[in-house]
Amino acid sequence: MNALKRYITREKRAIKEILAGLLLVFVLAMWPTGYEDAVIYQGAEQVPATVLETDESAVISTGLIKSGEQYCKVLIEKGIFKGQTADGINLMSGSLESDKIFSEGDRALVTINHKDGEILSVNMVDHYRVGKEAALSLIFVALLVLFAGLSGIRAVISFAVMVLSVWKIMIPCFLKGYDPVWTGLMLVLLFTVVIIIFVYGVNAKSASAILGSMLGVLTAAVLGVVLTDVFMIHGAVMESSESLLYSGYAHLDLTRIFMAGIFIGASGAMIDLAVDITSGVYEVFEKRPDISVKELTGSGLAIGRAAMGTMTATLLLAYSGGYLSLLMVFMAQGTPLINILNYKYVSAEILHTLVGCFGLVAVAPFTAFISAAVIKKKAK
């Protein structure tokens, strides 16, 4: 009977947490960024359209590279010009990275410039992928909820909170000139609290995991700030950073943004490790309530040592996965290893990876000691 009461109480608490999370998601979704009326999109409408015909007569092919213009007749699917056909233009610059080619039957995202109810021009932006992305997301959410139940719903909500917080709070704050390091730390604290509370609820176990992970994040933040200067890395190594400066944001401190990116990128792994250690410590205590703080801390460290190997490998693969083509270029050209290690963008990725690993190493003892001390104090 007592077990049934505990189960009902736990389920009620989970439902309350889910409702609170949904409210937070709604607030963040409605939260204005201040950049909704970007100048480049005034007097224009972005809608999906179906490609009816294509004309490649003005496309210049040079091996793999295509330049010139592709003309497309499109059927507009949404917006004030829904149902109308128009002639669109696809400008190609000769870059495989950014250029695209359309075929009959493709769905495309188009920008319609108009005035007084008349279409002035139609620019082919890219293939329309929103529907496929939404379908993939819904399948993921359905599987997560199916296998994890209420915990799956809480995981989805915490993910939504993180995405919305980055887009609605972090990015606008960075653009407005707020210090990226301090802003990043505040946002990571928010992520940590939301994720861990959705896993554990509001209790001593959550407090232990939050404190342990945040001490690891602080360690990574301090090392990131110090070592970025030691390595003499400039924030311009980040992708699209120069485009940002030329867009009217030359006042931004790219190096501080780079510093913030170091611990933000590793924070997820630190949270994961802190949760694993805390769960293990509490499980050990439930089996051995008479265990000492020292022994309990040792158990937490043992769990941390086992998990750190996979976590550091996770960080390494996550960071190096986006640079496979660059590594292949180095090998294909026979670039000496000493040259590779001294390139600033390679040094920046090494810094990212190692500082994140330092943070993981710090999380284990912090979380093990804190969770052991908290649970023994609570038991007394």
Distinctive features:
6 strands; 64% helix
Short recap of the structure:
The protein is α+β, with helices and mostly antiparallel strands and 380 residues long. The protein has eleven helices and six strands.
First CA to last CA: what distance? 26 Å
Largest sheet: spatial strand order? 1-3-4-6-5
Q: Main sheet? A: 5 strands, mixed, barrel
The level of helicity is 55-70%
Residues in β-strands, percent: 5-15%
Which structural class do the helices and strands define? alpha+beta
Shape: globular
Number of strands: 6
What does this structure look like?
There is one protein chain. The protein has helices at 2-30, 130-148, 150-175, 180-200, 204-230, 241-246, 254-287, 293-320, 324-333, 337-342, 344-379; strands spanning 44-55, 59-62, 65-76, 85-93, 107-115, 118-127. 64% of the residues lie in helices and 15% in strands. The relative contact order is 0.09. It has eleven helices and six strands. It is globular, with a radius of gyration of 26 Å. A five-stranded mixed β-barrel has the order 1-3-4-6-5. It has 380 residues and is α+β, with helices and mostly antiparallel strands. Strand 5 (107-115) and strand 6 form a beta hairpin.
